[in-house]
Amino acid sequence: MDTDAGRTVPAERTIDRSSPTPYYHQLKEILREQVTTGVLKPGDQLDGEHELCRRYGVSRPVVRQALADLHREDVLDRVRGRGTFVSQPRTSQTLVQFVHGLYDDVVAMGRTLRSEVRQLTVEPADADISQRLRVPPNTPVIRIARLRYVDDEPWVYTVSHVPFALAPGLLKEDLTDQSLYHLLQERFGLQIQRSDRTVEAQQADPQLAKDLQIKAGDAVLKLGSVSFTADGVPMETFVAYHRGDRSRFEVSLTRSAKASSSVPLVRLV
Predict the structure, then answer these.
(1) How many CA atoms lie within 13 A of 99 on its CB side?
(2) Residue 101: closest CA among 166, 148, 135, 168
(3) What is the secondary structure of 219-253 as a DSSP string?
(4) Could you give the C-alpha distances from 222 to 73, 181, 252, in angstroms and in order?
(5) Which of 26, 83, 93, 139 lies deepest, with the highest CB count within 10 Å?
(6) pLDDT by residue (tens digit) across 132-165?
């Protein structure tokens, strides 16, 4: 333990090289802990990539993946030409949506949807995923990263997580042309009863811009979701980054004494 102006400060965590957990995942959680404990505060600038590589003894790709994940989870913000900063707290607004995914929307419009599956792996749930899925940290979850094309044009980059215990056979499935929701229901008996969803505007980082074939800094619509079974068990969560020039979210509102809202629907334009 170190001391700082009369108070005790925990020693900085390091990479555990004997652990099977990937280095980028460990570094991500180290940086997240520094944010949640107040070591790094909103608006603070992180050290550069080279300094992070030196301090934690990892390669530049490891640092970049950890920073990219934290950026996509709104823990960090990247400012072009200035660096990486701890995000300011955000105000959220609840949206309610028909419980179906992009696959159903695209098919209903007579268009084609296919997915380039970038990742289909098991990993330990980090703090963000464990909170969303209401499982203990490090619980095995299936991570599904997909670049999704509508009529052969890149449209949305999606990262989904499903508890491994609910659908272990999912690792053997080909999700190129299948709806994840349909698959979870038909193969694993997991039927979505409701989903809690949020939407916000964001700027595309260089990697996301490359995937979606837009310019870095262009607007994307970030859709977050947690889906539940009839018993209220979280069965899937995702974050999806839609091209701002190709998608919009439409919301149908009904007046209610309880101010309950909305039926958002993804429309492709």
Answers:
(1) 17
(2) 148
(3) EEEEEEEEEE-TTS-EEEEEEEEEETTTEEEEEE-
(4) 10, 19, 19
(5) 26
(6) 999 999 999 999 999 999 888 899 999 999 999 9
DSSP state of 45: B
Instruction: Annotate 132-192 with three-state secondary structure.
Output: HHCCCCCCEEEEEEEEEEECCEEEEEEEEEEEHHHCHHHHHCCCCCCCHHHHHHHHHCCCC
Cα–Cα dist 22/119, whole Å: 14
CA atoms within 13 A on the CB side of 86: 18
Q: Name all contacts of 148-152 with Cβ < 8 Å and 24+ positions apart.
A: 148/102, 148/113, 148/114, 148/115, 148/116, 149/113, 149/114, 149/115, 149/116, 150/106, 150/111, 150/112, 150/113, 150/246, 150/268, 151/111, 151/112, 152/112, 152/114
Answer yes or no: is pLDDT of 184 > 60: yes
Model pTM score = 0.73
**Mind listing the pLDDT tens digit for each residue in 195-204?**
888 888 899 9
Total Cβ atoms within 10 A of residue 131: 14
